[in-house]
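Sample pair:
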Amino acid sequence: MAAGQFTNTHVCSYAQGQLTATLLTSVVAAVFGSLQIGYHTGNLNSPARIIEEFFNVTWKSRNNEAMPDHTLTLLWSLSVSIKDFGALLGSLGVKSLASSYGRRNPILIGNALSIVGVSLMFLCKAAKSFELFILGRFIFGLFCGLTMCLNPVYIQEISPINLRGAFASLNQVSFASGILLGMIVGLETVLGTENYWTFMLSLSLIPAILQYMILPFCPESPRYLFINCGKEKEAKAALSRLRRNPDKITEELKEMTEEASHIEARLRVKEFFTKQCYRQPMILILMTSLGSQLSGFNAVINYSTKIFTKAKFNEAEYLTLGVGVINVAFTIVAVFLVERAGRRKLLLTGFMSLAICNLLMTLTDSMLNIVPESRGFQVLVMFLLISAYELGPGPISWFIAAELVDQSARPIAMAFVSLINWGGKFLLALLFPELWKLCGAYVYLIFMLMALVAFTYTMIRLPETKGRTFDDIAAEFRGAEKILMHDKTSFNTFS
């Protein structure tokens, strides 16, 4: 199909009324989870000093002496990073939950972990226990590992082809919106105060409760019901709730039947890592995820206030708020671009832009002591870095795996994505302060190198997945020995 032909088909499919109230409600209910995750990613930045003082006071009340600086630094790094470590462990449960209980119900199961973790964080000050705060962050992290995998799978499997990428990107929009909301509420002029910071942490209970009120009434993934469970009648009923057009329902059921004939009903983890047809998708998942998480974005999101303070900005927390605004703005832009420009082009543009931004961060950070006025340019570069991440690598690295593999391998692939993404976040959150002390401005060169490696591999190996059925994409990898650059007038990637 020629590029122009696809554009016409794409526009027409929008006109056929693919967006229904049930579909939109299901997507919104699912992304309440990523909103919670974003909130607890952004809300520790501004009140960090106040919470660190709570750590110090608690330590002093037990030991009759102030906490040593290196111990405080280590405990705070652990507090920030333990969520990501918990997420790494939580992702190990994705395969069994998604295969046994479907796509929707495991999201609800994971949501209980959020409520428990947040409740522990809320109680830590009253209990005079910073350990309770850290434990709460860890349990909340288990929820993160499940949700950021299960959401894209559920959303993509209930969405029509022409909206699949855009709706999957809404997961990142919700995540980024949560970060911004956390940054705002965490300001000292709002709730990031000595008296209210634990109440600030508890506000994510609101979307958690809303999810329990809405998601149980949304349909299960038709693909899971049909392909995994063999329940054609239930799958058709779910599709009828999600689509208006009977012809589209028949077409999707036919496509599911075709995919089911090509795959095994159950796939073991060992088979995923050893079968030839999954080898290239696995490497692509690895490279796009590592390139995304080790691109410098997480260092800016977690430590932007400290970076701005080092540059001697008096109101560093408000510049951090600017980071959050840019983050949300460009995730929204990505929603509109992902079905127009395609996944491949946005990833390539994003990775190259991230590499350039990290090089500029190295130059500006190393010049701060010599030319203090360069700090304004550093702020601009940080904003550009956030923009580049959210235009492609940020949202796409979370859902591309679900498009590159077939139905039986999808839970394993998404668990693999989660392991890499959360593992990268954890290591960066834990090690960045020490790497920054050790390497100074040159720490950004590490991020630049990772972005360039990801750009190179993506350019050589990644096929375009925009506008294609899951079975069509998986067919390219079945029995393929290598990937060639795709023909510009065709979707085919392999020789």
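The chain has one domain: 18-218+262-477.
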